[in-house]
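Hi all, long-time lurker, first post. I run a small reading group and we've been trying to get comfortable going from sequence to structure in the token notation. Rather than ask abstract questions, I figured I'd post a concrete chain and ask someone more experienced to write out its structure so we can walk through it together at our next meeting. Sequence below, copied exactly:
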Amino acid sequence: MASYAVVEQTADYLIIDKAPGVSVHRDQDDTGLLQQISAELHCGSLYLVHRLDKMTSGLLILACHAQAAAYLSRQFQAKTVEKYYLALSDQKPRKKQGLIKGDMERSRRGSWKLTTGQKNPAMTRFFSCSPEPGIRLFLLRPFTGKTHQLRVALKSIGAAILGDQRYHRVADAGIERGYLHAWVIAFEWQGERREYRCDPTVGELFLLPSVRQQLEQWAPPSRLAWPASS
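-- Answer (accepted) --
Happy to help. Here is the structure in token form:
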């Protein structure tokens, strides 16, 4: 399986579909993902303006020069970039839709936990449905960008993500990936709205016809009547 696929390439930025299990950072490999892409596309140095966890697949923006990196980074810092994720769980959530909000604190062995504190809360709005018996599909819209935010948010409502070896309560035998995918991203570029969608291509459960049908009902996610953010 390739580590990425090109979704859009411009002179200013590159949009890729990152494969699950691929680290954005160098890790133990001799060559990091950005260095690999730069070498294969002959596009010079690339700049990381946001991140995806190793288990997460989907849309990742890479800036092609320092000015583009600064322009995009300001939008991420201002929380004006719209991000929509898909996730699957085999557990029934305590609520089917709404807002998950709370401070995040470090837990054991590099994990995080959600608390009831509201000093600097992580905020995630979500919808969910059951496309198949025993499977819960989530559409997630984070309003903050904290480490492991979506993974911890779903665990906090009793629906840890399938294949998430850190936060799922039991080992997922036969689950070939962590079922979290960056589906749609939208941002402003030179006065115009740019929106990109990339359906998941890896993972048997993501490819179920019932899941695909639900994605079409949710698209475009920016037009849905999202639960209130406060």
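A couple of things your group might point at:
The first strand starts at residue 4 and ends at 9.
The chain has one domain: 4-221.
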